[in-house]
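Can anyone check this?
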Amino acid sequence: MSKVLVIIGSTRPGRAADLVVPWLTARARAYQGFEVEVADLRDWPLPIFAEHPGTIGDINDPTYSEPVVRAWNTKVKQADAYIVITPEYNHSIPAVLKNAIDTVWLSFGFRNKPVAAVGYSGSVGAGVRAIEHLAHVFIEAEAVPLRNTVVIPFVRTAF
């Protein structure tokens, strides 16, 4: 069975993602073609990206700068597809989400795998610009961002 990793891209207290996640995961789990797992970036205290040849160790079996970085790379690589839930911060994605994606550079965990995006905001913007930027980031990570997305304007009213 294929595995879909739902990545919650905000760690902000009071985040609206906590309203979106139950709705999304219920619908994803209703489709029985894949297993759904949630990866909340609050549970992944990744250091700010600073990996370099001196921190990765053996290129064939990298240790990385910290064990959590290695564990995150393993988690991402085990999935077959991704759904990223993101708010929009200054017309882009949260730094913690960008950092989590950047941290997967050596394992190529996202390579050739589909990525769906769900954007939300408290206004009419609905995270559209964040999703646009996210697609560019994932293309560079060698993932395959899906053309169709879900956008949720006025998220606290919607839920």
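Reply from J.R.: I decoded it. The mean pLDDT is 95.
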